[in-house]
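Consider the following assembly input.
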Amino acid sequence: MKMNTDRFSLTVDEYLAETNVLIYLNDAVTQLLEHKEEYTQFGVVRYFAEYFTSVKNGNHVLFREFSYIKVTPHNRESFIHTFWKCFRQIGKNGDLLAMSEYSSLLQLLCPDFPTEMVQNAARIVLIEDATDCLMSFSDFIYAFQIQFFYEEFVESVSVIYQDLLSGKSPNTVIVPTSTSVEQISSAASEEPDAQEGVDSSIFCECIEGLCERFKHKFPSTVAIKEILESSQRVSFYGFLMALAKHEGVNQDIGALPNKSDLLIDPEMDQELERL
Amino acid sequence: MAEKHRAGVEIMSDSKSARAAGDEQLLSQSGVSALLRGALLRLLESRPEDPVGFLAEHFAHLSSEAEDGASERQSVSRALWHLSLAHHSHRSAFNNNVRVAYELLTQGVPRRLSAGGVRGRLYSEMLRCLCSEGGLSGSTAAPLLRRVQSHDYESVPFELFRQGVLTCAVFADYIRKSQCLYAAVASAPDRPAERTLCHAVLSTLRDALETADGIDVARYLEASAKISPAKVAQAMAEVQPRAQRHDGPTMDAQEFEDAAAALFIARVRTVT
């Protein structure tokens, strides 16, 4: 959550907006009012100290509602990191799980986590086919990271992709809708050459145009270009899977280690050795 | 389905507005509003790089203060933390932080004793820590501290406190800059620089310091900023040609640093 050095030239509103501080203050007060008993025990000041310390450490998203865990990039990153810490053992055991099982795990940490998002993540791993197939922890978590952290970007890119598939001009104004992902899957099943995907360089141009005016987080354009320059044609899920596997994108988000370090859990190893 | 949902929302919002009124009262009674207002003001004054971390520390300090009262050690480290939030070139933010640090150090002391300001011992301790945190070695900082410190028993008023803190912060920057200048004239990282080159750079430094008149210490740093790489190159060009370079006497990094420090410290008024 580091900022640049010209934070002093921002107006009060700009500084507050950039840091998402008001979101956290609002949430802290709301939570305080909902759990009044806690504050009478420990004192209000202590409550705020603990709230902000847990935000800083990334522990604040555990068991919170979906609308909170997605409200800031830091929250999303913290949630992904927490999910990894809690369940990396699954990866160690080499278990393969179904989409519904991953969904249950996510709902252990966030009771109202929507299954549609888990479905979308599964589609990335399985390239849209047979979403009741089993997935490894490693494949799932990197795809889930892209779907969840860059949710708005993925939605907008799917609209671009659909427009290109249906032959619309790449300069159409992009308006993301929640039904866009469903449209993609129906278009893919109707058109036999949808497997061919779209032309990579046109796709790349459109995405770059999107990023220039995009208000939400998006992967670095360097990474996007790298991926799209590596082949002439690309499919939507192929693109997302490449993003999921891209090490630079993973590091920019900062929630998960490299794939090779994903399953390392020294404390758990110690515990298991004692048994 | 949609209608049920809408009705549900309406019912919620009715009881919600009743609760909201009760909540507001609770917040103002418990002092939460004032607490948050104070925290936001501090935040906007300091504009830290990590606002969430700042708020966590702010509330943590407040709560431990409320619980067991601040020990001296804690006060000094908290004051130092506040001073680290903004660079001295961001003048108003820095001054705000100095004010907060000053108040932290005069807290917990009976009114009659704190009337004059911060106790000399605490003030000297602060300056010492400030210098070491700024990367200055004890020997480099010592001559400066001798000039700006005050006696343990004395009381340091705010303006003097501010000047002392600013001087140390600027001095730390100045020494860092001198170290860079030395590195620029040294022909290789592991070999000491030519003595004549060092003298040339030092005299450019002295000239720059001399052109900054007036007692505002920070102007000295602005003056030394006039030593651009071009000026160093000019100084080097005026010195002996390359052929004789390797044979002449050298000056090592520490000697250069001490000489540069002396130029600065000579212009700092001793506190009486």
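The beta strands of chain B are 118-119, 155-156, 193-194, 250-251. Ask yourself how this observation constrains the way the partners meet.
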